[in-house]
Amino acid sequence: MSPNIIGAPVRAMLVLGTRPEAIKLAPVARAMARSPLFDPIVVTTGQHREMLQQMLDLLHVPVHTQLDVMRDRQQLSTLTARLIDGLGETVRAERPDLVIVQGDTTTALTGALAAFYEHIPIAHVEAGLRTGVLDNPFPEEANRRLIGRMARWHFAPTPRAAAHLTAEGVPDAEVFTTGNTVIDNLLWVLAEGTGRSLFESELRRVLVTLHRRENQGATMRAMGGALRRLADRGDVEMVLPLHKSPAVRDALLPELTGHPNIRVVEPLGYVDFSATLASCDLVLTDSGGIQEEAPTLGKPALVLRTTTERPEAVEAGAARLVGTEPESILEAAITLLDDPVAYERMATAGNPFGDGRATDRIVAQLAEDFGADAGPEGAVVPLVGTPGEGPGSYSTA
Ligand code: UD1
Ligand code: UDP
After folding, report:
1. Does this chain's domain 10-180+354-378 share its CATH topology with 198-347?
2. CATH domain 10-180+354-378 topology
3. Is 27 in the pocket of ligand 2 (CB under 6 A)?
4. Residue 379 in contact with residue 360, Cβ under 8 Å?
């Protein structure tokens, strides 16, 4: 990659539209904002509305362009059409030096496609995750494979993710194993220590999140039934920050409303969610990001899905893939609550998703490939923030 314009910062467009994209691109945006080498241009698509809005403070970069594509219960085809239209226009207007997308959402796929159509190189953060099943998770497995065909930089969180890419024919020189930026952000937020846990009692604390499209409807209703039966034990305090999706609410609320041991709450901001996760005993989730965060904090995670693109946590022993059948969910949860040895084994298995310096590696690689001088020390800038320098006290000094 040749240098862009001598002395001009690299104009990096970060495209984000959902909650996890904001969380996982926030450290990259912060690092680029601190560096004289980069000019970060944040574009939000509004694929999520409230759930994105509550994450934007993490970026420390003002939003440059804000699209507003969310519609209630929107079909994927309509969402995709709105996104490619709005992002195409934005990329043409700004002509950045590169476009950065994260993960596997429809925002990420269309962000990459919009850049590709304008011959602008694409950096893919969290590249190479695969379940091997094209429609599970749906539509994310297809989205990430398609982004992988278009990207110039593939920032893989783990060696396994990197190996998937090379097996698919991506040149080694374009694949970089970095760790996952979610860990960078989590450590940064927890170091600040300002979050408030939602757990209130001395009961066994179970944190639950569910949202996957492939489970919506009858499967998710049955999963809700399993959660209610778990709470019926009486020794459990369950907190469930409920995704805004009406399809998720339709499935879960009838099962969970009114139970004395279940607190269903609106989605939490990241600072409070991290504190809630840090103070729980057990996690039940179908979330991608939470599968990465829970092992980092020594919280056993039961993955309520039939596939995972994060087998590293399962192999390390920090997570268990328990499926979506109510009986399997209940049995796995009860084992962990009742068997201290099984619990301890999972809680101490460790985190395979990175050391909190993924952002440093990503930004340094991009700086090098754009011919930017990283300075005599080699480090681009203090990238991720240091303890005590959390979201409330971040300074660009
Ligand atoms: C999306 C991503 C999924 C990611 C998840 C993170 C796709 C296809 N899916 O799924 O990969 O794991 O985000 O949470 O990109 N809604 C609101 N307010 C919000 C957010 C959503 O009302 O702040 C409602 C809207 O009715 C919207 C619906 O939820 O139409 C579904 O949102 P959508 O972004 O299409 O899919 P998610 O299931 O959130
Ligand atoms: N999260 C949050 N508040 C909540 C629930 C989740 O901040 O109420 C965070 C969580 O810590 C993780 C991310 O949101 O970093 C995961 O988002 P989600 O489960 O919606 O998406 P996925 O990771 O499955 O794509």
Report:
1. yes
2. Rossmann fold (3.40.50)
3. no
4. yes
Cβ atoms 107, 20 nearer than 8 A: no
pLDDT 10s digits, 128-139: 999 999 999 999
Ligand 1, pocket residues at CB < 6 Å: 18-20, 47-51, 70, 72-74, 79, 104-106, 139-140, 211, 213, 244-246
pLDDT at 372 over 90: no
Ligand 2: does its nearest atom lie under 6 Å from the Cβ of 293? Answer: yes
CA distance 279 to 46: 31
**Using N-to-C axis directions, what is the helix angle for 181-192 and 270-278, rounded to 10°?**
90
From ligand 2's centre to the CA of 376, what distance in Å?
A: 38
Is ligand 2 within 6 A of the CB of residue 308? no
Mean pLDDT of 209-237: 97
Mean pLDDT, rounded, for 279-293? 98
**Strand (E) positions, 20-89?**
38-44, 63-66
Tell me, rounded to whole angstroms, the distance of Cα 54 from its chain centroid: 15
Q: Please, what is the average pLDDT of the chain?
A: 93
* Domain spans, the chain: 10-180+354-378, 198-347
Q: What percentage of the chain exceeds 70 in pLDDT? A: 92
- The response to whether residue 17 sits with its C-beta less than 6 Å from ligand 2 reads no
- Catalytic residue ranges: 104, 126, 140, 211, 213, 243
The structure's pTM equals 0.94
CATH-assigned architecture of domain 198-347: 3-Layer(aba) Sandwich (3.40)
- Nearest-CA residue for atom 24 of ligand 2: 287
Q: pLDDT tens-digit profile of 340-351? A: 999 999 999 999
